[in-house]
Amino acid sequence: MKKTGEEPFVFQDEATDFLLLDFWRWSQSDILNNALRGQLADFIVAKAVNAVNDMRIEWDAYDLVTQDGTKIEVKSAAYLQSWKQTKHSTIQFSIRPALAWDAETNTYSTEAIRSADVYIFCILEELDREKVNPLDLDQWTFYILSARQLDREKGKQKMIGLASLLKMRPIQVGFDGINQAIKSAKE
Fold first, then answer.
1. What whole-number distance in Å separates Cα of residue 167 and Cα of residue 43?
2. Residues whose CB falls within 8 Å of the CB of residue 107, separated by 6 or more in sequence, listed in order
3. What is the spatial distance between Cα 135 and Cα 19, in angstroms, rounded to a whole number?
4. How far apart are CA 10 and CA 12, in angstroms?
5. Helix (H) or strand (E) holding 17
6. pLDDT of residue 91
7. Number of H helices and number of E strands within the chain?
8. 62-101 pLDDT, tens per residue?
């Protein structure tokens, strides 16, 4: 069930003075952090495509589903990380085929595949630590490919770097172009 953040923690059947929102602020404020930035990218794409997912399901076979049933896998990378860096991070993404887990049935597929129809590779492009803001949608670039193309050109390959991704000629868009790019990638 989706939470509002106003739910209090309870101790000895009494509401405390701290809320779920306090926990979210405490645990989820570092949105430049790798794991959380990935969830943020999922959310950004969900909003761009008006995904039918009511809430994020951890470990599901793909990240999002559009209104027309298109299954989307979202990958995220950034040049800047939340920790101190001596150089910018190398952009790379996991594209490994996997045994798909179905949250509704709690079962795994028997074959490692890419379960989504479309992959969206999201890069937080800002290089200046003083200006980086994952909430600024203009700082993101989105690269869209069909899973069929990944299967055809990369087979069982597990990782892909930016240069290799660009050689595949993905559809490159800003936030406002994601929805149309997904439709084009599927054709």
1. 27
2. 101
3. 24
4. 7
5. strand 14-19
6. 97
7. 5, 11
8. 889 999 999 999 999 999 999 999 999 999 999 999 888 7
C-alpha–C-alpha distance, residues 142 and 76, integer Å: 9
Res 187: pLDDT: 67
Provide the token pair at 43.
């959310």
Tallying the residues shown for the chain, one arrives at 187
Extract the tokens encoding 110: 């028997």
φ, ψ for residue 160, nearest 5 deg: -140, 135
Give the tokens for residue 6. Answer: 């106003």
**Tokens, residue 78:** 């950034």
In tens, the pLDDT along 93-136 reads 999 998 887 777 888 888 888 989 999 999 999 999 999 999 99
Distance CA 77, CA 24 (A): 23
Burial class of residue 25, CB neighbours in 10 A (0-12, 13-18, 19+): exposed
Residue 102: its pLDDT value, please?
76
pTM: 0.90
Cα 164 from Cα 153, distance rounded (Å): 11
Report helix angle 34-49 to 178-186, nearest 10: 80
State the pLDDT at residue 146. Answer: 96
Q: Which parts of 31-157 fold into alpha helices (H)?
A: 34-49, 147-154
